[in-house]
Amino acid sequence: MFNVSGYAKVFGLDRQEKFIKCNLSTSKKNKRGEYEYMQWRGRIVGNAVDKMQDINEGDVIKIENAIAESYYVKEKRQAFTSIVIFDLAKPQKRPQ
User: Contact 10/22 with Cβ under 8 angstroms?
Assistant: First the structure.
């Protein structure tokens, strides 16, 4: 388990009563100055669920407190990584 922070675009929102499942898209520049894109599975919990009321598909969020979890599904013989978000904010303007 690792602490995570940064910016991510949210999509595939599946709003439940006490949590929200979503997909997250992040990017970073590599050594050649080109952007590399990553996709993550996310789960928004606790007070962060309330902060998602004004956030829609494709919006960028600032992840302020989250952890990365890795889990193994024996039946599929595959490991998965997901981001559990405890606190977030909607940036005033889109980060570069």
Answer: yes
pLDDT in tens, 59-70: 999 999 999 998
Map residue 75 onto helix, strand or coil. Answer: coil
Write the CA distances from 21 to 40, 87, 92, 94, integer angstroms: 11, 14, 24, 23
Model confidence pTM above 0.90: no
> In this structure, is residue 80 part of a structural domain?
yes
Q: Domain limits at 82?
A: 2-89
The rounded radius of gyration (Å) of the Cα atoms in the chain is 14
Quick one: tokens of 19? 């949590």
